[in-house]
Design a protein that fits this description.
Largest sheet: 5 strands, mixed, barrel
CATH topology: Rossmann fold
Protein name: Nucleoside phosphorylase domain-containing protein
Oligomer: single chain
Keywords: Signal
Order of helices and strands: EHEHEEEEHEEEEEEEEHEEEHEH
GO molecular function, one term: catalytic activity
InterPro entries: Nucleoside_phosphorylase_d, Nucleoside_phosphorylase_sf
Shape: globular
CATH superfamily: Nucleoside phosphorylase domain
Radius of gyration: 20 Å
Organism: Populus deltoides (Eastern poplar)
Helix content: 10-25%
Number of strands: 18
């Protein structure tokens, strides 16, 4: 990203997806054919081909010998083990709509214990997160629901006139307020939410497992300027906007105290929370 540095984001260990036993456990057909309907799996949600290549190159994923994948609704769900743990992973293809659809299919068609989202994000805080770092956030905000105000009305959080160049002043684009989104979940009344917090037990597990992990600075002869690190306890921003504008990135960091920006993590959390 221009002016907004690219980092790795593990928004995973983010949400404990409660199981739905109203759906048939005999989907997909492969689950019945290989008699694995009793296996609870971990769902791994990848953003791109690059993420999948990183998983494959790690040598940690072993495809199932009988049914290595299942195609559902145009998506390929890969079945196997990761360090001897049963998992199923899928590439979501980018943006919140694709992410939500992929995760919903994953939860409907497999018996999923929880979701890990592994993808890329832009750093909005160069003091704490630099290219190559891995971010494990405490919470993610959906900053893509805007209430665009009328010109002359009370100012919202994002006032476009403050970004006029070279002199601040009035702007016909007026201002924007950030709206909450409606979360529908089983057994609860609809809630208006802006932040999607991580599940405490899963976040604690992530810190224990990853805190001493050493990340490589060089890979296949290509090296980062500095040794990468894992950054815990940040907040993330998520929307359908691919943010390359430094001024807007600085605004998000200042107003919402977010350190990263991506296009999928809030949608992954949104769908997982409602289950």
């Amino acid at each position: 990203m221009s002016s907004v540095n690219l980092v790795v984001m593990v928004v995973g260990l983010l949400v404990l997806a409660q199981q739905s036993f109203q759906m048939s456990l005999r989907n997909p057909v492969a689950e019945t054919n290989n008699c694995k309907i009793d296996f609870t799996r971990l769902g791994l949600v990848l953003t791109s081909d690059t993420n999948e290549k990183a998983l494959q190159d790690s040598g940690l994923f072993t495809p199932d010998a009988e049914t290595p994948y299942v195609d559902i609704a145009g998506r390929r769900f890969h079945i196997g083990t990761l360090n001897a743990r049963y998992i199923v992973y899928v590439k979501i293809g980018g943006n919140s709509v694709n992410a939500a659809i992929a995760v919903q299919i994953l939860l409907n068609r497999f018996r999923i214990q929880g979701i890990i989202h592994f993808g890329s994000a832009g750093s909005l805080d160069k003091e704490s997160i630099v290219p190559g770092d891995v971010s494990v956030p405490l919470a993610v905000a959906f900053t893509g629901a805007w209430n665009w105000k009328k010109f002359g009305s009370a100012e919202g959080k994002l006032n476009f006139g403050e970004f006029n160049y070279p002199v601040n002043g009035e702007n016909l684009l007026a201002s924007v307020d950030y709206d909450t989104v409606k979360l529908f979940s089983k057994g609860h009344s609809p809630q208006d939410v802006f932040w999607f917090p991580s599940t405490t037990s899963w976040y604690s597990a992530a810190t224990q497992v990853l805190q001493d992990l050493e990340l490589r600075q060089c890979y296949h002869g290509v090296c980062l300027p500095s040794k990468p690190k894992i950054v815990f306890g940040t907040n993330g921003s998520s929307s359908d906007s691919y943010i390359k504008n430094k001024a807007y990135g600085d605004f998000l960091h200042k107003v919402f105290n977010v350190s990263t920006a991506d296009q999928e993590s809030a949608a992954v959390a949104w769908v997982s929370k409602k289950e």
